[in-house]
Amino acid sequence: MKGFFQFIREQGVIGLAVGFILGGAVGKVVSSLVQDVVQPLLGLILGVSGGLNSASFGVLGTQVAYGRFLAVLIDFLVVAAVIYFIFKALRLDKLDAKKQ
């Protein structure tokens, strides 16, 4: 058991777990922002009632629903940008630099 606890302390497993939990929470907040604020505004701009998720067009009698794809893509881009800027602001990129 001593080796196990030493591994947890030395490898920063607790910090990783806390970061994982906080990352999930930040992801939920940003997803809500995109879904509840950005998508309806884009729906208004594109002239689609019901928000971006309901945007589609018809081709040869078939509906191509591109709105949901755009919504998921926007959600991913915003979450990635937020995590990137938090990572840079906290200077976490310096942690992986080789120690001299």
UniProtKB/TrEMBL annotation:
It is found in: Membrane. One of its GO terms (cellular component) is membrane. Keywords: Membrane, Transmembrane, Transmembrane helix. The chain crosses the membrane at residues 12-34, 41-60, 66-87. It is a multi-pass membrane protein. Gene3D superfamilies: Large-conductance mechanosensitive channel, MscL, domain 1. GO terms for molecular function: mechanosensitive monoatomic ion channel activity. SUPFAM superfamilies: Gated mechanosensitive channel. This is Large conductance mechanosensitive channel protein MscL.
